[in-house]
Amino acid sequence: MIIVTKADIIDKVSSGTGLTKLETEAVVNGFISVVKEELLEGGRVDLRGFGAFTVQHRAARTARNPRTNTPVPVPASTIPVFKASKEFRKEVDEKQS
User: Fold this and answer.
1) What is the C-alpha to C-alpha distance for residues 60 and 10, in angstroms, rounded to an integer?
2) Is-contact 78 56, C-beta < 8 A?
3) N or C end of the chain: which has fewer CB within 10 A?
4) Are residues 62 and 95 in the same domain?
5) Which pLDDT value is given to residue 1?
6) What is the rounded average pLDDT of the residues 72-95?
7) Backbone phi, psi, residue 71, to 5°
8) Contact 83/51 with Cβ under 8 angstroms?
């Protein structure tokens, strides 16, 4: 498995666009900031052909501790979610097959 870090993304985008690494880092940080702000406000960020970042609400539930089999309450929560577009999922599937 290959892990790509933020620094790797900055390097690749910088070399592909001709921007300096500092300029590219500002763009990447700006993008991340916009996505975070929108999700914190309960919004949605759509990137056509790539996917959508949304906020998903999880209801409170009761889970079980697998070691002791005792019930454990899990409180309700709100989490950020990424859903890949159909085109992107298809590309990944074809590449991995």
Assistant:
1) 39
2) yes
3) N
4) yes
5) 85
6) 96
7) -70, 140
8) yes
